[in-house]
Design goal:
about 230 residues; mainly alpha; three-stranded antiparallel β-sheet; two-stranded antiparallel sheet; 7 helices; 5 strands
Length: about 230
């Protein structure tokens, strides 16, 4: 009897992830990279830096800009910081691939794997900008680049709300207020979507629940079950 239980346990451990578990996350990953890079290529070759095109009335524009640092235009300590940031991003990408593959092998929730693929695909999309755009687009860049010194291309601008701070506001009284003011790209969108989805569905992804059972009772039941198995054997 004990041998049968051990064989069943070994068989369950040896179950391999389905084709969907492998294929879907990587399809999502490569789709994010492709659509992000294609859109950036189109913007670089069809728009002039710091110009914009109206897409939907007054709240959606293509605004071509480039940033040398992190997401939404944040900077990071000059050229040395740029090298460090690009190398850090490469390290994060390697970790991301390891994390995705290891969780595919662990038969993680498929939707969770898709979320991880969104985050990794978005990260790789921006990494390609940082690593290669300083060389690939050297003739059309407004900066002196090189490998690891490329600037990230941003173009999505959604000034959904445009108003002014009240004159009595302690913060920027009377000045213009725009929501949402940062310009971003499709890679940023994929990363944000993946992170938000994981936060919203974390209980489903990680089986988080609070047990009402007493730990002593759980241990007692486990001992009884083990004793019964031994008697049957």
């Amino acid at each position: 009897m004990s041998e049968g239980i051990e064989n069943t346990s070994l068989a369950s451990e040896q179950v391999k992830p389905s084709v969907v578990k492998w294929a879907l996350p990587f399809l999502v990953l490569f789709f994010v990279i492709f659509i992000d890079q294609y859109f950036k290529y189109w913007v670089k070759n069809n728009m002039i830096l710091h110009t914009e095109r109206t897409m939907i009335k007054d709240w959606f524009f293509l605004h071509f800009t480039e940033n040398e640092g992190m997401a939404f235009g944040m900077k990071f300590f000059g050229v040395k910081g740029k090298y460090a940031l690009s190398i850090l991003r490469l390290g994060v990408a390697v970790f991301g691939f390891w994390y995705l593959i290891s969780h595919i092998k662990k038969q993680a929730n498929t939707f969770f794997l898709v979320c991880v693929a969104l985050i990794l695909g978005g990260a790789l999309g921006n990494i390609i900008d940082c690593v290669f755009y300083g060389v690939w687009y050297h003739d059309m860049n407004d900066y002196q680049g090189g490998y690891l010194l490329g600037w990230v291309v941003d173009m999505l601008y959604f000034p959904i709300v445009e108003t002014h701070y009240p004159s009595w506001s302690p913060i920027k009284p009377g000045q213009e207020f725009v929501f949402f003011s940062p310009v971003f790209n499709l890679a940023d969108t994929a990363i944000s979507a993946g992170v938000i989805a994981i936060i919203i569905f974390q209980k489903r992804f990680f089986n988080l629940h609070v047990s009402n059972e007493n730990p002593a009772e759980i241990m007692h039941e486990a001992n009884i079950e083990e004793s019964n198995i031994s008697n049957e054997a």
